[in-house]
Each structure stands twice: as C-alpha cells, then as structure tokens.
Design goal:
The complex is a heterodimer of chains A (about 350) and B (about 350).
Chain A (H helix, E strand, L loop, with lengths): L1 E10 L2 E11 L4 E5 L6 H9 L6 E6 L2 E2 L10 E4 L11 H12 L3 H14 L15 H14 L4 E5 L7 H16 L4 E6 L2 H7 L2 E6 L2 E7 H6 L4 H6 L6 E8 L2 E4 L2 E4 L10 E7 L4 E2 L7 E13 L3 E8 L2 E8 L9 E7 L4 E3 L5 E3 L8
Parallel strand pairs in A: 3-8, 3-9, 6-7, 7-8
Antiparallel strand pairs in A: 1-2, 1-4, 4-5, 9-10, 11-12, 11-14, 12-13, 14-20, 15-19, 16-17, 16-19, 17-18, 20-21
Helix pairs in contact in A: 2-3, 2-4, 3-4
Chain B lengths: L3 E8 L13 E8 L4 E5 L6 H9 L6 E6 L2 E2 L10 E4 L11 H11 L4 H14 L15 H13 L6 E5 L7 H18 L3 E5 L2 H7 L2 E6 L2 E6 L1 H6 L4 H6 L6 E4 L1 E9 L2 E9 L6 E5 L4 E5 L4 E2 L1 E7 L3 E8 L2 E8 L8 E5 L5 E4 L2 E3 L4
Parallel strand pairs in B: 3-8, 3-9, 6-7, 7-8
Antiparallel strand pairs in B: 1-2, 1-4, 4-5, 9-10, 11-14, 12-13, 14-21, 15-20, 16-20, 17-18, 18-19, 21-22
Helix pairs in contact in B: 2-3, 2-4, 4-5
The chains are: A alpha+beta (about 350), B alpha+beta (about 350).
Chain lengths: ~350, ~350
C-alpha cells in the first residue's frame, strides 16, 4: 500500500504538485487522468522516487520512502516514448532487470518466455528493438516492467504513441496482465475514455491538484466539481449558466423547473452540465428546458452524429445515435431533460447529479 | 484548388519488385474531387504515408501517374506542386509573432501587402487567436502552436491541395474537439481540397466526406462514414472502424442460413458462396442481449462500463463476441444474444459478399 499525505512539489516559484493525499492499495488499478501539464508525470516521478517532494509524507507498506532513491525502491516505469536497449535482443531487453538483480539463469529464462508470451513477443525474441514496430517496441518495455516483479508499476501514457486499434487491444490486456502480479498499478492518461476502459480507481488532476479520487465509474457519474466534470468528459460536457429564482432555473428566456431533490437550494447563479448524449431532439416525458439553437457544424461517424450548436452565445454539442443530417445554419430545438442535469453551485461544486447505475 | 487523379499508381521501395508483396502501395486508381475532404485511414505500415509522399512530391511512384486537374505532376518537385502541408508537430517560427508566422507563406509568394493583411486577419479570427495575434509564438501552448501550423497551411488560397499528416495526434482530447470542428468549418468556408492522414477513426470519420481505408499497402475500401459502418467491404474495415469493431465469426453458409458451430442464424437474404473461408460480420451495436432462452446462449467474460454505454465481452461457441448495452441497461443474469438480421454481413475470403451474389 502506497500512501501519500499532503505531498507538494515546488519547482522555482511554481507549484507542480499541490497537496496531494491519496492511498493506493496493493493489487489495484489507479488511473491519473488530466490534460497535459496537469501534474500526472510529476506525481509519478514523486511516487517512483525520481524526485523528492518539497513537503508531505509518503509511505510504502507503512515505511517512510521519502528520500529513498529509485534504485532502492521496487518500482517499474514505462514511458510514452519507447525506451529499450537498442543493441540488445528483445530477450535480453526483457531479462535485463533480472540480470541486474542476480536472478538465476533458469528463472530468467522461464520468466522472459512467460512475459514474451503474454505480450505476444515470442516470435521476436532474437530481434533488436529497432527492427520492431512501435507496438512491439512498447510491448518489450512493458514485458521488462512485468518481469521486474515490482511492487509499484508506473505507466505514463504508455499507449499514446501507438495506433488507435492497437491501443484498444492492449488497453484490455494490460490491466488483466498486471492484476495477476499483485502490484500497485498506476496509469496516466489524458483520455477519459481510456480511464473508463481501464476501470479501477481514477484520480482526476488539474493544475497539480488531485480534484477527486474515486472508483472510476463513480467519479465519472458524480464528479465533485466543475473542473473534475470537464476533465472527465469526452466529448466535453455542455455547460449552461443559469439563474435560480424560486422553482425555476432560467437561461435568458428559457426556463426549467428545479428538480425536486434540490428544491431547497438558495436562489442565485448555477451552472447546468449536460453530457452530449443526453441532449434530446424530442421533448422527454418529464420537465425539460427547450433551447432554440443554430447548427454550426455536424460530424457523422457512420453510427453516431455530433451536432455542434449555438444558443444565445453558448456553444454546445449533441451526440445523437444514428445518422442525423442537418444543414449548417439550420435552427433546431434541443431539450435538456430535468433528470439528466449535473448542477454546480457558484463555487463550482456539484450539488446534484443524475442517477446512473454503477454496475460493471 | 484541384482535383487529384491517382492513375494506376503503385510504389515499391525495392528496385526490382516482383510479387504483389513487394509493393508498399499496391495499385490504386481513383480521382479525388476538387474541394473534397478526404481521409487516409489505416494502421502504421499500411501505406498511407507512402501515398501522401507521392502526392506531395517527396516520392516518385514506381508505377502510374499522379495528376492535378488532369495535368501530370508525377515528376514535379514538391515546391513546384503548389500544395500546403501540416505535420504532426507544429512547424512555426518561435521568434515571430502569430501574425508574422501566418503572413510568412504569403510574403514568400509575393502576395500584395494589403491582401496579406486581409487574409492573415481573417485567419486569426477563424482560429480564435485574436488576443494573441501580436505575441511571439514561443510562449504559446502546444495546441496554440499547432493552430498556427494549421493556419499557415490554410492561409494560402491558391494551393492545389492541403495535406494534413496526423495533425492532431499530440493534442489533448478537449482541444482536439475544437480544432477538428474548426478545420471542418474552414473547409466549408474556403473549399480547399483537403487530404487528412490519420490512424484515428474518429478524426477520419468526422472530418472526411470520403474515407480511404488502407491495409497492408492496399486500399480496401473508399466510402462515406456510413458505408464503412454499415457495409464494410473487408473484415479489416469492420474491425478497424468502430469501437469495439465488428464481430467476425467463422461460419458455414447454406442459402439464407449461417451456422456458427451448432448454432443456426437466419440471414436476410440467400448468399451464393463457394467452399472458401466464410464469415459473418455483425457490429456490437446490433447484437442484442436478453435474458433466458430467447436467443443464442452466451457466456459473459467481462463487462466494461464506460458511462455512455457498456461493452459486454461474451463468448459464443468458443468465439469472442462483443455486445453494446446503452446507459442504464442491465446485464441479464442468464444471457442470450440475438442479431439484427438485416445488419448481418457475409464475408468470403475476408471480402464482403453481396446478397444473391
């Protein structure tokens, strides 16, 4: 179990990591989700012992590890760039951490072959990395991390440089492979979809802060504040700034009844968040806000349509199932369903989220 | 702007290609229309960069001709082809301001001064860079720099075509959305012939009118996003387009029924197939899960809840099969699947078989 308490890292005058407290359980999958420069790599470097925190404590299974250099920790790390020893064969690349650790020959052989099999590298063991495709090179780096039997495995956007489809396949396999080792598995990504596919728990990062750390699907369904909701949505969540007066939220001349569960909210400014696939072209049974919009662009993927809309100066995206052909410049009414609203207060804290099941 | 004709084009990096396998780009014969938006989509090594380099003039093809507006340009140097290119990483001058960066390609081509300032101002507006127009490029974020790169390609009106080589790969997801939409709007406004190379299906499908799907040096299908989704011409297209891709199950075909192991599946039409390898393709979106005996029993190996939908990983007679459940739909306890009959595609040696054919 890796425990971070009030960890901060200052470089010059800028705070790269700001007061992070999270506990990572043995055998767990933990995703660090956030845009570029939100602190994912900085946080991993602190966890690995490559950098020393400016303040805070970090313990591994109860033992203080602050100041303990990376060589003395049982850590494996894989980066976005494929890093292998170019002069060594794939076999030797995978074997290298065990050679350093003085593992006996028979064990090395067995473990290399096992890892190669899992990573689908068996046919390439005699080749050197530069004679492999990008996906095979990254699988070599991953196999090396696997045989190290590390307590902590840190993967920093490991699939970002790979082809989309290859990424899809490896994304399914990786958590399964690493789960078997019992290690703490930490995976950094900029993509919400990737976090959801990996499952486990997700820490959302913004400007060096962990804004939320929860079971992945729960963080997606109940983001505690606006920035977390934005970090954890792709396509971006639509936001409508509204004013609450009595039983109504209003956006310009458009109105919607305040849902019953938050009827007691004080009057004032709020933001309504609506995921693109919850924007409706037909009026739902319950209460809904009708918005007249202008179509600014449409994108059709063959199975779904993204319709980009403008309403009273607010840009929104509606994701529709199937093919919807609408012309640019057309006017269109969309409905915001009362049961599908994320409601944020003036401090951008979540006050209400739609209810979804967390199965799976 | 120009139409681009690929006239029996093929390329091998070997000096003496003998078999089909020696060609990095197998023969392609196609015409891209003036003002169209096209995407070249495929995994690395599929030949899309080879094709792009032939269009831009970095590579002379081993066979065939490339024509702009009907004129043979096969042996013209890149600078003689009048095309603009945007690459994966921003290509800009750090010490110049945004405005100077955008003006540079026009100054080089001796465009009159007032014309330059008109176009640059327009481009700054289109790219939403008005508040940064007079800042040096050095201090800008990665996606702002890439916007300038796009702008430097788009600011030239007279180009025959604009080629984009994975222009959004290094951009964060949110910004990707904005830039992609922007590009689409610009295409609508200015009507350039655009060719966009990517391995990302969402980028290809949302950007292009027609997508060229490539696999192992071969163009396996050219079609609209809908065609690629509904009727993949090759099982590779079915797999590559869609997340997860189309389910492909080995089967035997007899008239209008398919058999997968001991399971019989009714088809919408009769198919004439020989004894060669036959498969049926069904997209996860059209595999319906239900409880009980009403359908083909499956074993569920895993469920991934990705919010908007759930991916159910199941097993049918020893074959992996994915189904998609919409948000809020529960996974049944005693699961069986049904296929939407008219959405089933039949493949022979990996190629789509038309009904009756």
């Amino acid at each position: 179990m890796l425990e971070l308490k009030n960890i901060s890292k200052k470089v010059g005058n800028s705070l790269h990591i700001n007061d992070v407290s999270i506990t990572l359980e043995k055998g767990s999958v933990n995703v660090l989700l956030g845009p570029t420069l939100s602190g994912k790599t900085s946080l991993m470097r602190l966890m690995a012992g490559l950098d020393r925190p400016t303040s805070g404590t970090m313990t591994m299974n109860g033992t203080n590890v602050v100041g303990l250099p990376v060589q003395k920790r049982n850590v494996a790390m894989v980066y976005q760039q494929f890093i292998n020893y170019p002069a060594m064969s794939v076999y030797e690349n995978i074997a290298s951490p065990m050679r350093v650790a003085g593992v006996d020959k028979a064990t090395i052989d067995r473990r290399v072959l096992e890892a190669a099999e899992l990573m689908k590298l068996t046919p390439y063991l005699e080749r050197t990395p530069l004679n492999l495709s990008g996906g095979q090179q990254q699988r070599t780096a991953l196999a090396r991390a696997l045989v190290k039997d590390a307590e902590l495995v840190l993967l920093d956007e490991p699939l970002a440089n790979l082809d989309y489809k290859l990424r899809e396949d490896l994304r399914i396999e990786l958590p399964r492979i690493f789960a078997k080792t019992g290690a703490i598995f930490v995976y950094a990504t900029t993509e919400p979809q990737e976090a959801l596919l990996l499952g486990g728990k997700t820490a959302t990062l913004s400007e060096g802060r962990v804004t939320q750390f929860d079971k992945t699907i729960d963080a997606y369904n109940r983001p505690i504040d606006l920035i977390t909701a934005q970090t954890f949505s792709d396509p971006p969540m639509n936001m409508v700034a509204v004013r609450k007066e009595g039983g109504k939220f209003s956006f310009k001349a458009n109105r919607i009844e305040v849902p019953g569960n938050v009827a007691g909210l004080a009057d004032g400014e709020y933001k309504l968040g609506i995921r693109p696939h919850h924007m409706l072209l037909e009026k739902p049974d319950g209460a809904a806000m009708k918005l007249d919009c202008q179509v600014s662009t449409t994108e059709i993927t063959g199975s779904e349509s993204f319709i980009h809309l403008q309403s009273e100066g607010t840009h929104m995206v509606a994701l529709m199932h199937g093919v919807h052909r609408v012309a640019v410049g057309d006017t269109l009414s969309v409905y915001l369903d009362q049961n599908r609203l994320f409601i944020f207060d003036q401090h951008e804290k979540l006050v209400s989220a739609p209810v979804f099941d967390s199965q799976g | 702007m120009a139409s681009i004709t690929l006239d029996k084009l093929a390329h091998s990096y070997l000096s003496n290609p003998k078999t089909d396998a020696d060609f990095a780009l197998k023969e392609i014969d196609y015409e891209w229309q003036d003002g169209g938006a096209y995407a070249l989509l495929g995994p690395s090594g599929c030949g899309k960069t080879t094709l792009l380099n032939i269009i831009s003039g970095l590579l002379v093809p081993s066979k065939g001709q490339i024509k702009f507006n009907g004129q043979d340009v096969t042996h013209l140097q890149p600078e003689e082809r009048n095309i603009a290119q945007v690459f994966q990483f921003p290509v800009i001058y750090d010490t110049m301001t945004v405005r100077q960066n955008l003006a540079f390609p026009l100054i080089n081509r001796r465009v009159p001064k007032d014309e330059i300032s008109k176009r640059v101002n327009e481009m700054i507006k289109v790219l939403d860079l008005s508040d940064k127009a007079d800042r040096k490029a050095r201090g800008l974020t990665a996606d702002e720099k890439q916007k300038i790169s796009l702008g430097r390609g788009l600011v030239r009106y007279d180009v025959n075509a604009i080629l984009f080589d994975e222009p959004l790969t290094v951009i964060d997801p949110h910004m990707k959305w904005q830039l992609r939409t922007k590009l689409k709007e610009i295409h609508r406004q200015l009507g350039h012939t655009m060719i966009y190379v990517t391995h990302d299906q969402t980028e290809a499908l949302t950007f292009a009118d027609k997508v060229v799907v490539m696999y192992e040096g071969e163009v396996v299908q050219i079609g609209t996003p809908e065609e690629l989704f509904d009727k993949p011409a090759h099982t590779f297209v079915g797999y590559f387009i869609g997340s997860p891709g189309m389910n492909v199950l080995p089967c035997r075909i007899a008239g209008s029924t398919a058999s997968v192991g001991n399971t019989t599946i009714e088809l919408a039409h009769a198919y004439n197939v020989s004894g060669a390898k036959t498969e049926l393709g069904i997209r996860p979106e059209f595999v319906y899960l239900s409880a009980g005996k009403n359908g083909i029993p499956v074993r569920i190996d895993g469920v991934e809840n990705i919010g908007r939908f759930k991916i159910v990983r199941a097993n049918l007679e020893g074959h992996a099969i994915n189904a998609v459940l919409r948000e809020g739909e529960a996974v049944p306890a005693d699961p069986a699947v049904k296929f939407e009959t008219k959405r089933i595609n039949v493949y022979e040696n990996s190629h789509l078989v038309r009904a009756g054919g």
